[in-house]
Write a structure and sequence with these properties.
Radius of gyration: 21 Å
Number of domains: 1
Helix content: 55-70%
Number of strands: 0
Order of helices and strands: HHHHHHHHHHHHHHH
Number of helices: 15
Shape: globular
Distance between the termini: 27 Å
Strand content: under 5%
Length: 365
Amino acid sequence: MNEVSKLKNRLVSLDFFRGLVMFLLIAEFAHLFEVLMESGNAQLSAAMDFLFHHAKWEGLHFWDLVQPFFMFIVGVSIPLSYANRKKRGASEKAIRNHAFRRAFLLLLFGWGLYCIGPEKIVFQFDNVLAQLSFTYLISFLLLKKSSTVQIAMGFLCILISDLLYRFFPVVGFDQAFVAGENFGAWFNIFISGYEYGGHWAAFNALPTAAHTLWGVVAGKWLMDTTQQSEKLKRLLIAGLVALVLGYITTFFTPVIKRISTTSFVLLSGGWTFLALAVCYWLIDVKQLIKKTFVFRVVGVNPLFIYLFASIGGGGLFLKIIRPFSNSIIGGFLPWAADLISGFAVLFGLWYLCYWLYKKQIFIKI
């Protein structure tokens, strides 16, 4: 069966989008971006900092969009997955049980990543898997509601979070947008006993539920029987409206990813809709199928490669590769040796995904 035949019933643009995001993440685990930061070229270092580092507090960098991308993609997948399971004859109870089990496992894996290394069990919940467990479950429970309700619930999640930050009454944590002195910092201490490094907030799961809810809306639009041009128009309009609202809110709310302020959620949501629109236009409308393969093989096993790289898979590859690159050119071109090592690790992680893809092994929960 050829590539086109295999994919004719799939939303290939979603596979591509997911794969591109995961490819960027494994490149980070390969320390490739850090090597490029150390090139000695000021312009390249500045570009890498903007593209592949989070904003230190206020501001919006490209890397700040990666988690919203992923959470939105999961939302898009929910109605597609539900329809596929129904087509295969799964009952409502079986689908519901699967959703609850998946949410629990996402929370377990997200929490478990923080317990690797420390000498005691810690309870920290600010990474993408832990937060996705909440946003996924909320989105699944609202799956059968209208798109209007799902959009409104996204805004409600943002509003509740915004009000808590602005009016939280506890002294020492009543500065809405000051690092370490806001509701998010208090919530971290309340559930974990300490403030998180970098001032990331576990409570981000509530406002960023909007990304997954709006992803559900986008997924339902793309499943419609309407023309592709109409689907594309909806995505573009949604993205532009979210961006306009986001830029308006910047006049009274700073853009801070680490606590997922209103302006951040709206702006990142807008860019996410537009990113999906571009992928949909290029891949599903223009049918550039063969050119998506490199990214799709990563996108079909996202949980596996994320966990494998997170628990040291990239470091393992680096330990194998670095002695060779250092021995060959490290003595006179150390930066080039690090660069080659980074690309080699990236290829190793990608090839692992490719091997799984060729064996038709897809690790899901």
